[in-house]
Amino acid sequence: MANESRPCPCGIGDRFDYKGCGQEVQVEHIKAYVCKPANTDKAVIVIHDIFGWQLPNTRYMADMLAANGYIAICPDFFAGKEPWKPSDDWSKFDDWLKTRDARKINKEADAVLKYLKEQCGAKKLGVVGFCWGGVAVHHLMMTYPELKAGVSLYGLIKDSDDISNLLNPTFFIFAEKDDFIPLHQVTLLEQKLKKNCKVNYEVKIYPGQTHGFVHRKREDINPQDKPYIEEGRKDMINWLNKYV
């Protein structure tokens, strides 16, 4: 998946200088970042990439969702295990990743869903996730019927996966020039969904973009990408608005 010469492209991009508007809380066995707007019963779980729940970029996304009327929670889905650091040895990335399976997060998801319902009064729930979190979104949307909408942003696709049994509407965002996710895999996903999926879905490829563009590129220093960064974020919010 990654090595020293070809690292995971999550390591490519901008680290936002951003402090966040929310607060950190304890949710059963994990910590989480929460940002709550007033008077809403809608909530979105925000799932981080390999750099973990404290990455300013991901908290920026959570705060953006909160500004659009959602209780946004970004839990530590690594459950206390160290996130990946850009300075880590990329030749050891595969071994690191094996201990953090994006499809084995039900315990954490259960805790977060309980917290949102009981502590935040959430009645309408959605989920978004980036890279590693995009894989997690795909898994959760096939597992939890109470999640009424999902947005998976550049989550890795495996040919062998059972990827069509979505329980509720799911939107898949991909980048045209993603070295990590070949377009033929995106085509395969579309074919399987078209053949087997029983709910609404959309697969969209953003021209000229690279892995992580929605949350790992700053508009002010990537002017040529700004329209696509903004379009991806708007599409994400519109999908949630439509179904949550």
TrEMBL record:
Q: Which stretch is the leader sequence?
A: none
Taxonomic lineage is: Eukaryota, Metazoa, Chordata, Craniata, Vertebrata
User: Which keywords accompany this UniProt record?
Assistant: Cytoplasm, Hydrolase
**Can you quote a single GO CC term?**
cytosol
Q: Which residues form the Dienelactone hydrolase domain?
A: 30-243
Q: What is its main location?
A: cytoplasm
State the InterPro entries in the record. Answer: AB_hydrolase_fold, CMBL, Dienelactn_hydro
A GO molecular function term, named singly, is: hydrolase activity
The record's listing under PANTHER family reads:
CARBOXYMETHYLENEBUTENOLIDASE HOMOLOG
Q: Where in the cell is it found?
A: Cytoplasm, Cytosol
UniProt lists the family membership as follows: Belongs to the dienelactone hydrolase family.
What is the protein named? Carboxymethylenebutenolidase homolog
